[in-house]
């Protein structure tokens, strides 16, 4: 088996043991669900707070489903990038500090295979997380605000995945 394949299996096991394969998609699913739900229940939330002056009437227009999906992507661009940065920022430095990288470098291993295995696994988890959250957000947007053309939605998601 080539170096890249061996290192990719190592990264898969490491992400499985660190639960990154579970908690990162769970966070993205929550982000995808929170946007349509919070937009739908915003008037009730503001009414229940009760800090508004007497006689205040707040009229919120019902957002279009396409705008809700765009807001979900906005959440991913802000919070999603922060989550991935925090999850993967110390992977190579952490292995060097713990001594794992020293054990790996004692063997004939190219840095390219080492780095690309980490990068590919991070990208697989990123795409899996984004798509799971995106589909969860689509489901709740469909339930609360109405339907969106599914082919246009897939094109939007594929463009975002690039």
Which percent range describes the beta-strand content?
under 5%
Order of helices and strands: HHHHHHH
Ranges where pLDDT stays below 50 over 5 or more residues in a row are none
What is the end-to-end distance?
29 Å
Please give the domain count.
1
The value of Rg in angstroms is 21 Å
Number of strands: 0
Overall shape: elongated
Oligomeric form: single chain
Mean pLDDT: 85
Our count of helices gives: 7
Structural class: mainly alpha
Give the helix level as a range of percent.
Answer: over 70%
Q: How does the major sheet shape up?
A: none
How would you characterize the overall build of this protein?
80% of the residues lie in helices and 0% in strands. The protein has 7 helices and no strands. The chain is mainly α. Helix 1 (3-17) crosses helix 6 (111-144), helix 2 packs parallel to helix 6 and helix 3 runs antiparallel to helix 6 (111-144).
Question: What labels describe this entry?
Answer:
single chain, 162 residues, 7 helices, 80% helix
Please describe the topology of this protein.
Elements: H1 3-17, H2 20-49, H3 65-88, H4 91-98, H5 100-105, H6 111-144, H7 150-161
Short description:
The protein has 162 residues and is mainly α.
